[in-house]
Amino acid sequence: MTIRSSRAVAVALVVFATFTDIVAYAVAIPVLPDLSRRLGASPTMIGLLFGSFGITLVGVSIPAGAVSDRTGRKAPLVGGLAALAAATLLFAFATNLPWLFAARLVQGAADAVTWVVGFALIADLYRPDERGRMAGLVMSGTSFAVIVGPTIGGWLYELGGVRTPFIAVTVLATIATLGFAWLRPPAMSAPREVVPIRVVLRTPDVLSCAAAVVVMASTISMLEPVLALHLGIDLGVAPARIGTMFGIAAIATMTLNPIYGRWADKWGARKLMTVGLVLLACMMLLLSAAGNFPTIVALFVLQASAGAMAITPSLAYMGDAISEAGIGSFGVAYGLFNMAWGVGMLGGPALGGFLFERFGFTGLTLSWAPCVVCATVLLASVGRRRGVAPAV
Q: What is the pLDDT of residues 135-157, one digit of tens each?
């Protein structure tokens, strides 16, 4: 086996690609609002611009996975990363709002391809008892990107102007594109099988995993903005200290993700994901009872760690569900995973804002946390059909 066809190199490229994707997303957080305002966007228009990312993320995920099942993983990854480079460069040189919207929509589609096909490639190459460890490595790189992305964007913006951070990310995306173009995909651990999408969607464990992903994405995405509002409005905490809290939590998850991946391989991805979801709900309740900032920081780090305990195993669980059903259509499965995550990320903040506005932070946690526990219990009770593929 040459370096060009090494499994380790393939995984390293997936880690680098997902890292670059998250940096591209995170760089836009401090830069894009100011750029949009310069081009005449209202606050509502800026919100729509940010939200447009989710439209293509949700819409492209399953088709991207289905195409990769038919054509192989390499071509979609090269195309997706090339699209990410083009979209990021378009941000740098856009002169009007329609071009910004076009760039954001392409960025969402590129995100879908990168994550869906990247994890499908990992599922192709590794056995079920190895996938958790690989998912942990990818998610650790993602947590690191969450830490450095906004910082890189802000500093490059200050040093070189609005174009500089986008050009820097374009370079990263181009390197990732060239890396996958050079890669010769290694031999698969199991044969790839092209089946109708409906077959994958009728697999109970696949649907159970997708539903769990919607729950965890909704919970995490709703908590982030309302917790910041709670700290700022109710406790008078400055934005800089709130940002530090999120940074500490990201460092914790970056450290823990590889550990959770190994635990998923050892004890079972489904079991660890279920434990993580329950702990995520419990930590929400404890957060609502905390009355000072240091306690909230400690509890939020634990809450983020519990969220990682749910997310990392869920990635391995989706691959396991397909393997045990005897299907082998990892592209469609991870497309469904990504679509479920996008649905949760779109709905979570809206629901969180609604509940926070009417019931406050404590009321939000007291109403949502039991829903998470009940949903987890229901998902855990889904019957498993090991080794039997649904009828086509």
A: 999 999 888 888 887 777 777 87
